[in-house]
Design goal:
This protein is an alpha/beta fold. It has one domain (69-347): TIM Barrel, CATH 3.20.20. Strands 1-2-3-4-5-6-7-8 form an 8-stranded parallel barrel, surrounded by 6 helices. The relative contact order is 0.16. It is 55% helix and 11% strand. The structure holds flavin-adenine dinucleotide.
C-alpha cells in the first residue's frame, strides 16, 4: 500500500533551499491574524498600485502558482512529469464581469487546449463557470427567475461558450474539468454541464462536472446523474471535492435565514465524500472519477477499493488531483506507485490570481486544516536531510 509518510519521495523535486522556503511560508500562513492583516494589506496595496507584486511573487505566488503565463509553467510541468506527476493548467483569473472578458476567457481556454494537445503530461483542461458568464446570470437561472430578452441572449451566449470549449476538447481528445461555484450559482452550472455530458460524453468521459460533497444534497444529485446517464446513454465524468466556500455558504444562509446547504460538521462531509467516491467506483466502467482532495483517508479509501476489486492502479477512469504547492506527499507517492495523478497549476497575472491565493492562505490557516500536516512533513524531511 502507498505510504504517504515517505517524505524523501514527497519532496524529491525540492532542493534544500526550496524546502526551507516552503517551511517558512507554511509557518507564516499558519498564523491566522497575520494572514488576515496580510490579505487586507495586500488588497489595499494592489488597488493603490503600490509596488508589491515582487514581494507577492517571491512568497505565496511562487509557491502556489506556476507563473504568469503557460510558458512560465512549462519548466515545472516537465519536472513534475519526470516524476510521473501530470499537470493541469489552471488559468486562475477570477471576478471578471464584462461580456468581452467572457469571450476572451473562451479564447484563452482554446489557446490552452491547443497548447496542451500534444503534451501527454497535461491530460486535462479546466475552467470555472463564472469565467464564461456573469455571476448574476448564473444566480438568476439557478433561482429559476424570469429573464428579460437581453439576459436570455446573454445566457445563450454562455451556452455557446460551453459548447465551443467542450466540442474542441472532444475533437482534441482532452478531458475537460468544470469547477464548482457557490451553491446559489451552481444549479445553472450543473444544468449546463449535464447538457454538455449528454452531447460530448457519448463515447468516453470528456466533460467532468464537480460535485462538492460538503453539500448534504449532493449524494442525491450524484444518483440522479447516473440515472440520467443510463437513460440518455452517456458516460459521466465527476470531479469529486469537499468544497471550498464553507464559511461564505454558512454566513449567507444565516444572514438570509435559509437552511445551510453545508453538512452539519466535518465528519458528515467526510462520510458524504467517501460515500460519493464508493458510489462512483461501483460504476467505474461507465464513468470516470477525478478525486480532487488532499485528504489521506479518502485517498486511501479509493486505493483500498481498487485493490479489493483488482482494479489496475493506472485505470484510465480513475484520477487523483491535488493543488500545486500542497500535499506533495500524496501526489508524488501516488505517482511513484503508478496511479494517475495530476496537479492543478494555477497561473495568471499576480493581481488576477489574488482571490485564488487568498483562498489557499485561508485554507492553510485553519487549525483543523492542512498546515499542520504540511509543516509536520516538511519538518520531517528537513530533519532527514539534516537541515535543522
Ligand atoms: C484538484 C482540486 C480541485 C478542486 N476544485 C474545486 C472546485 O472546483 N470547487 C470547490 O469548491 N473546491 C474545489 N477544490 C477545493 C476542495 O473543495 C477543498 O476545499 C480542499 O481540497 C480541502 O478539502 P480536502 O478534501 O482536500 O480535505 P480536508 O482538508 O480533509 O477537508 C477540508 C474540507 O472539509 C470541509 N469541512 C471542513 N470543516 C467542516 C465543517 N465543520 N463542516 C462541514 N464541512 C467541513 C470543507 O469542504 C473543507 O474545505 C479543489 C481541490 C482540489 C485538490
Amino acid at each position: 500500500m502507498v505510504n504517504f509518510d515517505n517524505t524523501a519521495i514527497a519532496f524529491q523535486m525540492k532542493n534544500d533551499a526550496a524546502l526551507d522556503r516552503a517551511y517558512f511560508l507554511f509557518k507564516l500562513i499558519s498564523n491566522e491574524p497575520l494572514v488576515k492583516i496580510g490579505t487586507a494589506a495586500t488588497n489595499f496595496a494592489l488597488n493603490a498600485q503600490l509596488p508589491v507584486e515582487g514581494l507577492i511573487r517571491a512568497t505565496v505566488f511562487d509557491h502556489f502558482c506556476g507563473g504568469v503565463n503557460e510558458e512560465d509553467c512549462l519548466q515545472i510541468i516537465k519536472e513534475l512529469g519526470s516524476y510521473g506527476v501530470q499537470s493541469i493548467l489552471d488559468y486562475s483569473v477570477e471576478g471578471k464581469v464584462e461580456e468581452n472578458q467572457f469571450d476572451l476567457a473562451v479564447e484563452k481556454n482554446l489557446e490552452i487546449l491547443s497548447f496542451i494537445k500534444s503534451r501527454e503530461e497535461i491530460p486535462f483542461a479546466v475552467f470555472k463557470p463564472t469565467a464564461l458568464g456573469s455571476s448574476d446570470l448564473f444566480y438568476k437561472v439557478s433561482q429559476n427567475s424570469d429573464l428579460n430578452e437581453s439576459e436570455k441572449n446573454a445566457y445563450n451566449r454562455i451556452t455557446d461558450r460551453y459548447h465551443t470549449l467542450c466540442s474542441k476538447a472532444r475533437e482534441l481528445n482532452i478531458k475537460l474539468l468544470v469547477d464548482a461555484e457557490e451553491s446559489w450559482l451552481q444549479q445553472a452550472a450543473d444544468d449546463l454541464c449535464l447538457q454538455m455530458m449528454k452531447t460530448y460524453n457519448t463515447e468516453q468521459p470528456i466533460v467532468y462536472n464537480t460535485y462538492q460533497m460538503y453539500r448534504w444534497d449532493k449524494m442525491k444529485d450524484l444518483e440522479k446523474l447516473f440515472d440520467l446517464a443510463s437513460r440518455y446513454n452517456f458516460l459521466p465524468g465527476i470531479k469529486l471535492v469537499r468544497g471550498a466556500y464553507m464559511e461564505k455558504e454558512r454566513k449567507r444562509a444565516s444572514e438570509k435565514g435559509y437552511n445551510s446547504p453545508i453538512c452539519e460538521d466535518k465528519k458528515e462531509t467526510d462520510l458524504n465524500f467517501d460515500k460519493g467516491a464508493r458510489f462512483i467506483l461501483n460504476h467505474i466502467e461507465k464513468a470516470s472519477i477525478f478525486v480532487g482532495s488532499h485528504n489521506e483517508h479518502s485517498t486511501l479509501l479509493v486505493l483500498n477499493y481498487m485493490e479489493e476489486y483488482n482494479i489496475p492502479s493506472d485505470h484510465k477512469h480513475i484520477w487523483f488531483g491535488q493543488l500545486y504547492g500542497m500535499s506533495d506527499h500524496i501526489s508524488f507517492n501516488l505517482a511513484k506507485n503508478g496511479y494517475n495523478v495530476s496537479k492543478y497549476i494555477p497561473y495568471g497575472p499576480v493581481k488576477d490570481v489574488m482571490p485564488y491565493l487568498i483562498r489557499r492562505a485561508e485554507e492553510n490557516t485553519s487549525v483543523a486544516g492542512q498546515t499542520n500536516r504540511e509543516l509536520e512533513l516538511i519538518k520531517k524531511e528537513r530533519s532527514r536531510r539534516k537541515l535543522l
